[in-house]
Amino acid sequence: MNKKYLPMLVVLVLVLVVVLAFSLAVGGKDVKEEDSEPPGDFVESVGVLFEEDFKMIYVEGGTFTMGWTSPQGSPPPYTGPVKDVSVSGFYISETEVTQNLWQAVMGGEPIEGTAANLPKTMIDFYDVQEFFSRLYVLTGRVYRLATEAEWEFAAKGGKPGLAAGQHEYLFAGSNVEEEVAVFGGFRPEPVKSRQPNILGIYDMSGNVEEWVWNAWSSEHVGGTDPTGIDSPIHAQRTRRGGTYTGESFTRYAAARQIRSIDGSDPGLGFRIALSLDQASVPEGMVKPGGIRRPVIDERDIPNTYRDPRWVTGDDYVWNGDFMGFGGATMKVWESGEMVVRPHSSFDRTIAGQWYTVNNIALILVPSDGGDRITIPYIFMSPDMVVVNNDRTNVFMAPTGRYNKLPEEQLGRGAIARPVVPDLVTTGEIQAGVRLAAANHQLWDMDNIPAEARGQDPRLLDGPDQGWWMGFGAGGEHTYRKDFDPDGQFRFSVYTPGQWNNVLARGEWFTVNDLFLRVIGPDGRTNDYLYLVVDTNMYPLRHLSFQDYERGDSRLFSIYPNEQVIGHNYEIPTGDPVLMGDSTFRQPPPSPRECPGIPGKGTCGNTIHDCTCPVFCRICLSHDCSGH
Description:
- There is one protein chain.
- The chain contains six helices and 26 strands.
- It is globular and about 75 Å long.
- The chain has helices at about 5-25, 100-105, 125-140, 150-155, 160-165, 175-180; strands at about 40-45, 50-60, 60-65, 80-85, 90-95, 210-215, 235-240, 255-260, 270, 275, 315-320, 325-330, 335-340, 350-355, 360-365, 375-380, 385, 400-405, 465-470, 480-485, 490-495, 500-510, 515-520, 525-530, 540-545, 555-560.
- It folds into three domains: about 35-290, paralog of FGE (formylglycine-generating enzyme); about 300-420, Lipocalin (Beta Barrel), CATH 2.40.128; about 455-565, Lipocalin (Beta Barrel), CATH 2.40.128.
């Protein structure tokens, strides 16, 4: 080689090395933070059979007062302000998830016309997690629900809204409801039908209310990036934003209401959130891929006088409460011993022996001769059970949702197995003979025989009266029940002056003075557990087996018709039933399969397996366990 070209060659090689190194650094994301572009809005295009776009709005982190801050109007329930709540930067979708976006992600066909841009509704909390799991498979980003703090910070306009004084607005983006909220009609409208707030986010007041992450609590939880109370996943959740029906205060930016985790209705949807790193979730939140709809088949549980699902042994406990009330730690032994240790110092520890009736109620017989405690229950999962009880004070333990966990996690000292005099073995228990009450016979609950059916006279409300549950249920609605001596039953949920839905009507009967079945005109059944307690404080207490509210508790008192707000008359017998099917001893729903792609087939795996190559076009490029 000619020596005069050698220096030029060396320079050329060095240039190539530098360029290559820089390219590798950029391609491998190995760029210093100060060299990165600041976060900003972006648009995602996703779909299986067709693609749909959605826009994510960047919300800069900040500190604000969560809850009621407006100088106008009156604060809605459960909105007591909490100062100095901080949220890190995050993304939130410009609109609620639309019908077409849902179809695109879930593998359906596109919807034509204006219906394509209606908010997606009729989805429960678990459906939402399934959507996010599939969205992760398509994008590699850990999309999720917003926390309450994130949702409210975005609704109030984030840092720009705080600087402009808009955190004091009644609604998300305005004090004038008509400017920003869809309301007053009979159905939702397409998204973006009203003005956005200062961040460019639409419909955070009205149209449809939205799922957020937090388990329901009557008070806000503050701090930095709060995710709400420490609660089992399978607990009642929170909804925000209000819907196209109901009172204006439900659409306030600060308003909040409770919702059954299994609940779905035409006015409930959701929007998408994303952490800044696009891979993590706030501490205390579970990634969508880690959340499964509980699968429990009550038909497989043997019907004996001791339901084996209750047994904790020495190392586990049941621990829970009802929104901070009625909390306890319970330990249950297979041999028949049981201890209830209340969380409150105003209650007492109760030890004794236990039995169950038809896998619907546990009876605790105290060793000290005290009154028996009847505890109706519904298992939500093998490790979670919902209970109430017949103690005079409805908020005394145990009541609420209880989670099974290792006792050592509580750090409160071990509960010792009590010495129970005259302990009765399971084989010795007989109704009316040993331990069990005379009306606690075991029956075939799949085919309830005529001799098991009765009509508990304590449920009859009498003429010109009704069982009523007023406000205070975590929402704006109230409930009324009517039991007639001719065997007719009606159950209604309503918002005074707004709307009325009949949840159940038909002929009714009871079993064991614990189980209520209503058989409607079309043969559909509604099933509930109930107690009637000799007290003025919510004497009628029920738990629901209905699919839209499984495990939900309702508390009723008898009122004269003229005192029942908004429903001062007997519920008509001819009103149609609009909601719900019973889950009592029904087979669990089958898992939905991955959608296929025309011409490429389907693999038949559920999305949680993340092994469907015809669906997961980028599965090889990211770790599917990360969702």
